[in-house]
Amino acid sequence: MPSFRISEVAALAGVSGDTVRRWVDSGRLDAVRDGSGRRIVDGAALAAFMREGADAEAGASEDSARRLSSARNRFHGLVTDVVLGDVMAQVEIQAGPHRVVSLMSREAAVDLGLEVGSVATAIVKSTNVVVESDASKGVHHA
């Protein structure tokens, strides 16, 4: 079974090493010391932890209607580029280490209030990307 060092767990989870150490110190994530004294996390335990965390995060951030969606791949991030054409728009979102680019109608991009610096979520289902923004939910950030 593979095992991972704290830095590898951090990279896989998209968080800092300090966050992983806090998870371990608080008992949320099990780790053992290897022969060199470094903390390591069992791969199966990490997979279970990440599944539970994703499920908890999804439950906390979605209303009950959206939880019925079959789309499970959500990339919450910052809009880094918007190119508005006459009919279509290209929207780029940076979600941690992931860059997601979506093509949508210009009308949809405008209606969602997508602009560089705004927060949005790319929802990926197969080859389709659905984009949500906090602005479309009545939440506005300064």
Structural account:
- This is Molybdopterin-binding protein.
- InterPro entries: HTH_17 (IPR041657), Mo/tungstate-bd_C_term_dom (IPR008995), Mop_domain (IPR004606), SinI_DNA-bd (IPR010093), Transp-assoc_OB_typ1 (IPR005116).
- Residues 68-133 form the Mop domain.
- It comes from Nocardiopsis mwathae.
- GO terms for molecular function: DNA binding.
- The protein contains five helices and eight strands; from the N terminus they run E-H-H-E-E-H-H-E-E-E-H-E-E.
- It has 142 residues and is an alpha+beta fold.
- The protein has two domains: 3-61, Multidrug-efflux Transporter Regulator, Chain: A, Domain 2; 73-137, RNA polymerase II/Efflux pump adaptor protein, barrel-sandwich hybrid domain (OB fold (Dihydrolipoamide Acetyltransferase, E2P), Beta Barrel), CATH 2.40.50.100.
- The chain has a five-stranded antiparallel sheet. A three-stranded antiparallel sheet has the order 1-3-2.
- Strand 5 and strand 6 (98-105) form a beta hairpin.
- The chain is elongated.
